[in-house]
Specification:
The protein has 312 residues and is of the alpha+beta class. It has 6 helices and 15 strands.
């Protein structure tokens, strides 16, 4: 899923057409009448978390000026192409999901060879962007104090970081890298963190996300990741990989058991229960993992999933 830093880079790419007029449109979206954009000027672009907002207007000096805002969310596999159409990927995983050649959801033509092509995204017309600048991890207005307090809930930190209501733009890569940087186990309950440790994690999230915008590419993060998709951490320890959580909370997570040990805490009675497992006569390490790993203890979350729109 495209994360905040990637969408930010795409907005910069799309921004080259600010001030240009939409000549014609294309795409297979049924949610928006794209023909209404023809003849309108692309005048503004904004990003909040993983959402992109584009504004189109007629000449503002005209009394009956038209203003149209479109909201894009790129979902799990969405992408943006500039002056090129996307071809079928050689990835076996991608081909398993998309057998046919990808069809653009929206295409905005500003000239014969100048256009923006949106793939795999949801698009809708809105009145205006509703943006809380205190929750976007890439903005200077990001409220560190409020986010630090938010983290100290009786839920695993790997879940709290994906809540887009407070950490807009954070996805699985940012989550994994920030947790390693802060040396925190993904399933550590936020309620067990001291204010200093919670602050350290919040700062790690912002630092990594901003570094990604600076050093990454429009279609991939930096090359020098510490933990995500790695077999060994920077210190040479084996990296653990498992699906942590349940339902909409479940994500493939990477962590180092040596660098990110689970801190001993009292068991939670409201949100999680530890189920002990045994492996070949040896006692399992005191680590909370998700259901599905027969060689590790299992955590079964009891709370009701709050809805996919708030999780990355």
């Amino acid at each position: 899923m495209p994360e905040g830093p990637t969408v930010k880079r795409w907005a910069t790419m799309a921004g080259q057409f600010l001030g240009w007029t939409v000549v014609t449109t294309g795409g297979n979206t049924k949610k928006v009448d794209l023909q209404m954009l023809q003849g309108l000027c692309f005048t503004d672009i904004q990003v909040h978390g993983k959402q992109m907002f584009m504004k189109f207007t007629t000449d503002p000096s005209v009394q009956s000026s038209i203003q149209v805002w479109l909201r894009y969310h790129f979902g799990m596999w969405g992408t943006l192409r500039v002056n090129e159409l996307k071809s079928l990927s050689n990835s076996a995983l991608y081909r398993a999901r998309y057998i046919q050649d990808p069809k653009p959801r929206v295409v905005l033509y500003f000239g014969h060879e100048e256009f923006l092509a949106f793939y795999g995204c949801s698009v809708q017309q809105i009145d205006a962007p509703l943006i809380d600048e205190e929750t976007d991890v890439l903005l200077d207005s990001f409220n560190v104090e409020k986010s630090t307090s938010f983290l100290r809930q009786e839920k695993p930190v790997c879940h709290l970081l994906l809540d887009q209501r407070q950490f807009a733009g954070v996805g699985n890569i940012v989550k994994n890298e920030a947790l390693y940087s802060a040396r925190l186990h993904p399933m550590q309950l936020g309620s067990t963190l001291s204010p200093e440790r919670a602050l350290e994690l919040v700062e790690a999230v912002g630092d990594f996300a901003k570094k990604w915008v600076k050093d990454g590419t429009p279609y991939s993060p930096m090359r020098d990741l510490s933990i995500y998709c790695k077999k060994a951490c920077p210190l040479g320890h084996k990296v653990e990989r498992d699906m942590l959580g349940h339902g909409e909370f479940a994500r493939i997570t990477y962590w180092c058991a040596w660098c990110q040990p689970m801190q001993p805490t009292a068991p939670s009675t409201e949100f999680a229960e530890e189920v002990q497992a045994e492996t070949s006569g040896e006692k399992c390490p005191d680590t909370l993992l998700a259901e599905g790993s027969p060689k590790r203890p299992i955590v079964m979350l009891k709370e009701t999933s709050p809805g996919s729109h708030i999780y990355a």
